[in-house]
Amino acid sequence: MATDTVFRVMLRMLIKPGMGPDFERVWSEVGDSVVTHPANLGQWLSRSDEEDPENGGSVYYIVSDWVSEPAFREFETSDRHLTHRQKLHPYRSGGSMVTMRVVAHLPGGG
Question: Which InterPro entries match (predicted)?
Answer without folding.
Answer: ABM_dom, Dimeric_a/b-barrel
